[in-house]
Model the fold of this input.
Amino acid sequence: MQEALHHFETPFYAYDLQTLRSRLTQMQQAFPSAEIFYAMKANPRLGILRRLLEWDVFLEAVSLGEVHRAYRAGFKKTEVLLNGPVKTPAILQELAEIGVPILGLDSLADTQRVSQLLPGSRVLLRVNPDLPIATHDHLATGRGESKFGIMPDDVEKVLAAARRGNLEVLGLHVHLGSALSHLEDYHAGYAVMEQLYRQHGPFQVLNLGGGFGLDLDPASLAPSAIALAERLGAELWLEPGRYLVAEAGVLVSKIWGTKHTRRNFMLLDAGMMTLLRPMLYAAEHPVIPLYKGKKMQVWDLAGPVCESGDILARDVQLPTPKEGDALAILQAGAYGSSMSSNYLDYPRPLEILWNGLEWEVLRRKQSWEALFADEI
Ligand SMILES: Cc1ncc(COP(=O)(O)O)c(C=O)c1O
Done:
């Protein structure tokens, strides 16, 4: 890392291929019979997707752009599942041109539009299991209040519309939420799916989504998921995102000063434009210093953006830094770069991958030309 700091300008994302590989191995060993559709929204760098393709992983996309990216990385349309709550006619027409992936349908409207514009598609229906999922409100997609999925009582109606509309229904899908750590939530979700399969099945596929929190051991969940798929005679599909990539990436930032108001601040060159999760979900990321210093103090890490909420971490114990010292914000491989923005015309940061031998550049720091390219 010191070598990378020497060569590259901060802030940057640094990933480790070996960690990615071992997280995937853990998941594959826990679920040997499952088809893994990596939720590419967690980290869509082509350099990462191509590795996953080599390792026999498929992709879960949630936008037309992600489908384009998946195809560009080399995935076939049968290896990509497109979910998401809104699929406009323009999106469906473009899919017809570039290749229609497997489609996750989220509502009756979605189903009717797809059967009209893309008849014959292979689809899954996403269920909202209406459960009190324990996670941040913005991440609890399986709650009845969420915008996602078809309520259990409506499944029959939507299923009939899909079948009438000549869609090939592969099965049902549930994604309970993200950053989940309670096994009971999964078990409750599985029970809802079992009931729906008994009522409306059999189906070829059972898609149990992603959401695995970093502290959740997939091996503890696997027996019940695998047994359920076996009981239902369906192929098990999973859509992990965070679990595979979060620990494989850090955001490296330099400290350009300290400041004392009623709190102690370190002033960083990374902020909400490079890591939105603390602001969006009050997410907490561990932080480690890449410098030595004697006096330990409690710090808030402030980004450079002109927003009071631009704080990457609060109450972190760190040694007093010198100007230009660096630190690493951990667990930033998921939803870090993918949620980064050009707010205030900050260019998107450099992203590098340690492949065991050298640092590979996965994405250059965005140039000023690229930043302004689309403006007239
Ligand atoms: C439908 C769907 N599947 C899978 C995921 C991946 O979730 P996670 O990264 O928490 O595993 C998401 C995340 O939002 C999602 O919406």
